[in-house]
Amino acid sequence: MSGVFSDEILEAAARVIANAKARGVTVGCVESCTGGLVGGALTAISGASDAFAGGLMTYSDELKNRLVGVQRETLDEHGAVSSQVAAHMAMGGVSVLGVNRSVSITGIAGPGGGTEDKPVGTVWFGLAVGGQEEVKCSLAQFDGDREAVRMQSVLTALSLLDPGEG
Asked: What are phi and psi of 125, to 5 degrees?
Protein backbone atom coordinates (compact mmCIF):
# COMPACT_ATOMS: atom_id res chain seq x y z
CA MET A 1 0.00 0.00 0.00
CA SER A 2 2.87 2.37 0.60
CA GLY A 3 3.22 2.76 -3.19
CA VAL A 4 -0.30 4.22 -3.38
CA PHE A 5 0.05 6.78 -0.59
CA SER A 6 2.76 9.26 0.27
CA ASP A 7 4.57 9.03 3.59
CA GLU A 8 2.73 12.20 4.63
CA ILE A 9 -0.67 10.57 4.07
CA LEU A 10 0.35 7.36 5.84
CA GLU A 11 1.66 9.35 8.81
CA ALA A 12 -1.61 11.31 8.98
CA ALA A 13 -3.62 8.08 8.83
CA ALA A 14 -1.49 6.54 11.59
CA ARG A 15 -2.10 9.64 13.76
CA VAL A 16 -5.87 9.35 13.24
CA ILE A 17 -5.85 5.69 14.28
CA ALA A 18 -3.53 6.24 17.26
CA ASN A 19 -5.46 9.27 18.54
CA ALA A 20 -8.83 7.59 18.06
CA LYS A 21 -7.65 4.49 19.93
CA ALA A 22 -6.17 6.62 22.73
CA ARG A 23 -9.47 8.49 23.12
CA GLY A 24 -11.70 5.45 22.72
CA VAL A 25 -13.53 6.83 19.70
CA THR A 26 -14.46 5.29 16.39
CA VAL A 27 -14.11 7.01 13.04
CA GLY A 28 -15.58 6.61 9.58
CA CYS A 29 -15.78 8.38 6.25
CA VAL A 30 -18.21 9.13 3.45
CA GLU A 31 -16.36 9.81 0.23
CA SER A 32 -17.24 11.04 -3.21
CA CYS A 33 -14.38 12.49 -5.30
CA THR A 34 -11.73 10.54 -3.36
CA GLY A 35 -13.38 7.26 -4.27
CA GLY A 36 -12.46 5.38 -1.09
CA LEU A 37 -8.90 6.66 -0.75
CA VAL A 38 -9.44 7.94 2.80
CA GLY A 39 -10.65 4.51 3.87
CA GLY A 40 -7.75 2.98 1.96
CA ALA A 41 -5.23 5.15 3.76
CA LEU A 42 -6.71 4.32 7.16
CA THR A 43 -6.80 0.59 6.47
CA ALA A 44 -3.16 0.69 5.36
CA ILE A 45 -2.38 1.16 9.07
CA SER A 46 -1.95 -2.00 11.13
CA GLY A 47 -4.53 -2.11 13.91
CA ALA A 48 -6.91 0.26 12.12
CA SER A 49 -9.86 -1.97 12.95
CA ASP A 50 -9.58 -0.89 16.58
CA ALA A 51 -10.78 2.59 15.62
CA PHE A 52 -11.90 2.68 11.95
CA ALA A 53 -15.38 1.22 11.48
CA GLY A 54 -15.53 1.70 7.72
CA GLY A 55 -16.56 4.05 5.01
CA LEU A 56 -19.05 4.64 2.26
CA MET A 57 -18.20 5.63 -1.27
CA THR A 58 -21.15 7.70 -2.48
CA TYR A 59 -19.94 8.88 -5.85
CA SER A 60 -23.40 9.26 -7.37
CA ASP A 61 -26.15 11.58 -6.16
CA GLU A 62 -28.41 8.53 -5.94
CA LEU A 63 -26.12 6.89 -3.37
CA LYS A 64 -25.68 10.15 -1.47
CA ASN A 65 -29.45 10.13 -1.10
CA ARG A 66 -30.04 6.43 -0.51
CA LEU A 67 -27.10 5.56 1.74
CA VAL A 68 -26.55 8.68 3.85
CA GLY A 69 -29.82 10.58 3.51
CA VAL A 70 -28.83 13.63 1.48
CA GLN A 71 -32.19 14.99 0.39
CA ARG A 72 -32.79 15.28 -3.36
CA GLU A 73 -33.96 18.86 -2.80
CA THR A 74 -30.59 19.71 -1.23
CA LEU A 75 -28.74 18.17 -4.17
CA ASP A 76 -30.97 20.00 -6.67
CA GLU A 77 -30.74 23.36 -4.91
CA HIS A 78 -27.05 23.41 -3.94
CA GLY A 79 -25.40 20.75 -6.08
CA ALA A 80 -23.38 17.76 -4.91
CA VAL A 81 -20.32 19.94 -4.32
CA SER A 82 -21.61 22.18 -1.53
CA SER A 83 -21.36 22.70 2.20
CA GLN A 84 -24.94 21.51 2.61
CA VAL A 85 -24.25 18.17 0.95
CA ALA A 86 -20.93 17.74 2.79
CA ALA A 87 -22.75 18.33 6.09
CA HIS A 88 -25.48 15.80 5.35
CA MET A 89 -22.91 13.25 4.17
CA ALA A 90 -20.92 13.59 7.40
CA MET A 91 -24.06 13.36 9.58
CA GLY A 92 -25.20 10.34 7.61
CA GLY A 93 -21.80 8.75 8.21
CA VAL A 94 -22.12 9.06 12.00
CA SER A 95 -25.61 7.58 11.86
CA VAL A 96 -25.17 4.82 9.29
CA LEU A 97 -21.68 3.74 10.32
CA GLY A 98 -22.38 4.10 14.03
CA VAL A 99 -19.16 6.04 14.68
CA ASN A 100 -18.20 8.93 16.94
CA ARG A 101 -16.61 10.95 14.12
CA SER A 102 -17.28 10.96 10.39
CA VAL A 103 -15.59 13.00 7.70
CA SER A 104 -17.12 13.61 4.27
CA ILE A 105 -15.53 14.70 1.01
CA THR A 106 -17.34 15.96 -2.08
CA GLY A 107 -15.61 17.83 -4.87
CA ILE A 108 -14.50 18.23 -8.45
CA ALA A 109 -11.24 16.42 -9.09
CA GLY A 110 -11.17 17.13 -12.83
CA PRO A 111 -10.04 17.37 -15.42
CA GLY A 112 -13.65 18.04 -16.46
CA GLY A 113 -16.75 18.92 -14.50
CA GLY A 114 -15.72 22.33 -13.28
CA THR A 115 -17.73 25.52 -13.74
CA GLU A 116 -16.99 29.19 -13.21
CA ASP A 117 -18.60 29.01 -9.74
CA LYS A 118 -17.09 25.62 -8.88
CA PRO A 119 -13.83 25.14 -10.77
CA VAL A 120 -11.82 21.94 -10.85
CA GLY A 121 -10.13 21.51 -7.48
CA THR A 122 -13.14 22.72 -5.48
CA VAL A 123 -13.66 20.34 -2.55
CA TRP A 124 -16.04 20.55 0.40
CA PHE A 125 -15.39 18.66 3.63
CA GLY A 126 -17.72 17.93 6.51
CA LEU A 127 -16.92 16.67 9.99
CA ALA A 128 -19.71 15.34 12.17
CA VAL A 129 -19.15 14.35 15.78
CA GLY A 130 -21.72 12.17 17.49
CA GLY A 131 -23.76 14.09 20.05
CA GLN A 132 -23.07 17.47 18.43
CA GLU A 133 -25.69 19.10 16.21
CA GLU A 134 -23.29 21.36 14.35
CA VAL A 135 -21.27 19.92 11.49
CA LYS A 136 -17.98 21.62 10.75
CA CYS A 137 -17.71 22.28 7.01
CA SER A 138 -14.73 23.67 5.16
CA LEU A 139 -13.95 24.52 1.56
CA ALA A 140 -10.63 23.97 -0.19
CA GLN A 141 -9.46 24.94 -3.64
CA PHE A 142 -6.66 22.60 -4.71
CA ASP A 143 -4.31 22.97 -7.65
CA GLY A 144 -2.97 20.25 -9.87
CA ASP A 145 -4.24 17.32 -11.86
CA ARG A 146 -6.90 14.81 -10.79
CA GLU A 147 -4.49 12.73 -8.71
CA ALA A 148 -3.08 15.81 -6.96
CA VAL A 149 -6.56 17.09 -6.07
CA ARG A 150 -7.59 13.69 -4.74
CA MET A 151 -4.45 13.19 -2.65
CA GLN A 152 -4.64 16.71 -1.19
CA SER A 153 -8.27 15.94 -0.35
CA VAL A 154 -7.27 12.73 1.44
CA LEU A 155 -4.68 14.57 3.53
CA THR A 156 -7.18 17.30 4.45
CA ALA A 157 -9.86 14.76 5.35
CA LEU A 158 -7.47 12.85 7.61
CA SER A 159 -6.49 16.07 9.35
CA LEU A 160 -10.15 16.87 10.01
CA LEU A 161 -10.96 13.35 11.16
CA ASP A 162 -8.11 13.22 13.67
CA PRO A 163 -9.62 13.38 17.17
CA GLY A 164 -6.28 14.67 18.46
CA GLU A 165 -6.69 17.82 16.36
CA GLY A 166 -9.72 19.07 18.17
From this structure: -120, 145
Residue 29's DSSP bridge partners are: 55, 103
How distant is the alpha carbon of residue 26 from its chain centre? 15
pLDDT tens for the chain, 166 residues: list them: 457 899 999 999 999 999 999 999 999 999 999 999 999 999 999 999 999 999 999 999 999 999 999 999 999 999 999 999 999 999 999 999 999 999 999 999 999 999 999 999 999 999 999 999 999 999 999 999 999 999 999 999 999 999 996 5
SS3 6: coil
Q: Residue 147 half-sphere exposure, CB side, CA atoms within 13 Å?
A: 3
What pTM does this model have?
A: 0.96
Query: What CA–CA distance (Å, rounded) separates 114 from 37?
Result: 21
Q: How far is CA 164 from the centre of its chain?
A: 17
List the chain domain ranges.
7-165
Q: Which option is the CATH number for 7-165: 3.40.190.170, 3.30.1300.10, 3.40.1010.10, 3.90.950.20?
A: 3.90.950.20
